[in-house]
Amino acid sequence: MIRFQNIRKVYGTGDHAVKALDDVSLHVPAGEIFGVLGQSGAGKSTLIRCVNLLERPTSGSVIVNGQELTTLDAAGLRKARQQIGIIFQHFNLLRSRTVADNIAFPLEVIGQAKPQREKRVKELLSLVGLADKANAYPAQLSGGQKQRVGIARALACEPKVLLSDEATSALDPQTTRSILDLLRDLNRRLGLTVMLITHEMTVVKHICDRVAVLRDGRVIEQGLVDDLVAQPGSEIAHEFFPRIVPPKEKNGGLLATITFVGAAAEEPILSSLLRKFDVGVNILGGGIETVREKRVGRLLLELSGPDASAARNFLEERTGLKVET
Ligand SMILES: Nc1ncnc2c1ncn2[C@@H]1O[C@H](COP(=O)(O)OP(=O)(O)OP(=O)(O)O)[C@@H](O)[C@H]1O
């Protein structure tokens, strides 16, 4: 797990001071995939670099796997970092080394003997689906394959935490999806805690359990993705479903925006409504999205007729439905 408590990071001093992180507190529970979403300059890179202290916060505490990192000496920090793997947008592979030797690199650094190293590299190659590429050089690989090597290298020392620094930003949509699927699979199979930074909502939508939205160095929202999507007015819900503007020529009925998540999205809610009430239902706008294999949707309805209020109350009482009127 990762816990950030009141992290501040200021670059430079005096007139040149830049406040990159401003009182950031986060909790990434063990075994979850946590996304930090933000636009360019929001402070995402600074934040992820503070997790393994590649960047030292100006103040605040960083706790990873139960250990407060800011108080460790150099040897303690080196050891703690072995439990934190990291993958990068541009892969950062060594061009003159083969795939197998790139993956072996961190094992050489910790002094692991050659036979164990070779065994471990073999396991890692098959874990990321590159068993046939051991002797290839990075230049001979596609972007997706290079990132798989990056992932294998990051997992070499069996870390509990994997950090992903915009790991799919340089990849096309299909390759992005396959890398995200691999991360989700590793998260499940190894119980790996994953913290990723991204400016892409699709990444959050595809794999994140939890998300924090970073703006100008501050966390403006955080929580379970499912909860935030369902929460009217949240930043995440707004990204998924941009505000639906009712058309001017509405018929004077009651307006209700319903958001449905998971099981509620599978129910034939509108046909139930029409069966139970003397009500007219006009769909004025909306959309349906898939979030980690679950469907979520938002519809703007206009309810008219004698039972319009009762129909709206019925919608409000349904579990899994959020209604704004
Ligand atoms: N080494 C540095 N020295 C001074 N200012 C810095 C340094 N690194 C980052 N900054 C500033 O800190 C702020 C946050 O930068 P950061 O790179 O963390 O944002 P980001 O969200 O990762 O952006 P991007 O997506 O463009 O990489 C920016 O205003 C940036 O200019």
Which SSEs are present, and which pair or pack?
Layout: E1 2-11, E2 18-28, E3 33-37, H1 44-51, E4 59-64, E5 67-68, H2 74-81, E6 84-88, H3 99-109, H4 114-127, H5 143-155, E7 161-165, H6 173-190, E8 193-198, H7 201-207, E9 210-215, E10 218-224, H8 225-230, H9 235-240, E11 254-261, H10 263-266, H11 269-276, E12 280-291, E13 294-304, H12 308-317, E14 321-324
Parallel strand pairs: 3-8, 3-9, 6-7, 7-8
Antiparallel strand pairs: 1-2, 1-4, 4-5, 9-10, 11-13, 11-14, 12-13
Helix pairs in contact: 3-4, 3-5, 4-5, 5-6
The structure holds adenosine-5'-triphosphate.
InterPro entries: AAA+_ATPase (IPR003593), ABC_transporter-like_ATP-bd (IPR003439), ABC_transporter-like_CS (IPR017871), ACT-like_dom_sf (IPR045865), MetN_ABC (IPR041701), MetN_ABC_transporter-like (IPR050086), NIL_domain (IPR018449), P-loop_NTPase (IPR027417)
Protein name: ATP-binding cassette domain-containing protein
GO molecular function: ATP binding
